[in-house]
Specification:
Length: 355
């Protein structure tokens, strides 16, 4: 059965979906987050199934009126003695383990029922509500998240998150595009190392193939088709990348950049030192240079705008630049740099040449 035909029951029976909700399979999590983002019409069934599985995992039970308990008990009795109906066979990894899940759910429903079974819990559990923020070309938008963290969303970007964040639960957002984060530290004061922190006090940005976890810090994240990068200004960042051959983690220190490109998807994450303030320049609409080598400016343009820059005169790399240039209009930015370098610039798509 194609995934876009899945009902709530199909999601519940899918072993890969179970692994995604319970959180034991990073590859499943990456697949299902990307899939539902591409199939918003299935969001309701997706969220209903996720809520039910989460309730099963936590074992929490809401209080129900005695009359409703009796009614639901009668329904369960009829269902258990009805003739079995043919069951659909989902396509993805549904085998003995999935059937054991179904059996466990029915057992929990029957043994601990008294009106508190999974079917009732699914009926009363609220469907998670999501909020999305988007920007158009040339637009920037400043946001305040439920925990007080601040986000500057760059042009042509989308940020998605749960509308309500519960105290003591992990803070998560999903980013397509670019954003600069100023995350509020909510962990105990003595807890400063992100790698040692429990999941429920971390703030995580899901940026395509990268998961970016912090406690309280300032950093820039870019997730555009073909590349993803993170630049850290203050604090600590823990990166998690699922790649062929396993999952890797990487810690960033202030002034470091980590990047992932499709051509190197199977390679380990690499980091390098940069001037982090330059990479946050877009948040104010301009880039400020103070005796900055042209070679560093060229690397910034390539990292930020996805350009491939060549120089007719290699000696230009040694020149130093001072001043402020606008960052929102790439053509104006390139023309200003060419004038500062006393040269000409030619651009074809993402290929730029200074002569």
């Amino acid at each position: 059965m194609p995934y876009n035909d899945y009902s709530t029951d199909d999601f519940l029976a899918d072993e890969s979906f179970q692994s995604f909700v319970i959180g034991h399979d990073p590859a499943a999590g990456q697949f299902w987050r990307a899939w539902v983002a591409e199939h918003p019409a299935k969001q309701t069934e997706f969220d209903e199934a996720a809520a039910l599985l989460q309730l099963l995992a936590t074992g929490q039970s809401p209080r129900l009126p005695h009359s409703l308990k009796q009614t639901e008990a009668a329904k369960l009795w009829q269902a258990m003695h009805a003739a079995p109906a043919p069951q659909p066979q989902p396509m993805l990894r549904v085998g003995q383990r999935a059937r054991r899940w179904a059996g466990a759910a029915l057992g929990a429903l029957a043994l601990g029922f008294a009106g508190l079974g999974l079917w009732q819990r699914a009926a009363v559990a609220p469907t998670p509500a999501w909020t999305s923020y988007a920007t158009k070309a040339g637009e920037r938008r400043e946001l305040t998240l439920p925990d007080g963290s601040r986000v500057m969303l760059n042009a042509n970007s989308v940020l998605k998150l749960a509308t309500t964040w519960q105290p003591g639960h992990a803070r998560e957002v999903w980013l397509a595009g670019e954003a600069f984060f100023r995350v509020r530290h909510t962990a105990p004061a003595q807890l400063m190392a992100v790698a040692a922190a429990p999941a429920n006090v971390k703030f995580t940005v899901h940026a395509g193939p990268l998961d970016v976890a912090v406690l309280g810090t300032q950093f820039d994240v870019l997730n555009r088709p073909g590349r993803a990068k993170v630049v850290l200004q203050t604090g600590q960042v823990q990166l998690r990348h699922v790649r062929p051959g396993g999952t890797e983690t990487l810690l960033l220190k202030p002034g470091e950049l980590a990047e992932l490109r499709p051509a190197a998807a199977a390679a380990p994450l690499a980091k390098r030192p940069v001037d982090a303030a330059l990479y946050a320049g877009w948040t104010s609409g301009h880039l400020d240079f103070a005796d900055t080598p042209a070679s560093e400016v060229i690397a910034l343009l390539e990292d930020t705008y996805g350009l491939h820059i060549t120089l007719g005169n290699p000696a230009l790399r040694q020149q130093k630049l001072s001043g402020s240039v606008p960052s929102q209009d790439l053509d104006v930015l390139l023309a200003t740099l060419a004038k500062s370098l006393d040269t000409s610039v030619h651009r074809t798509g993402t290929h730029v040449r200074f002569d």
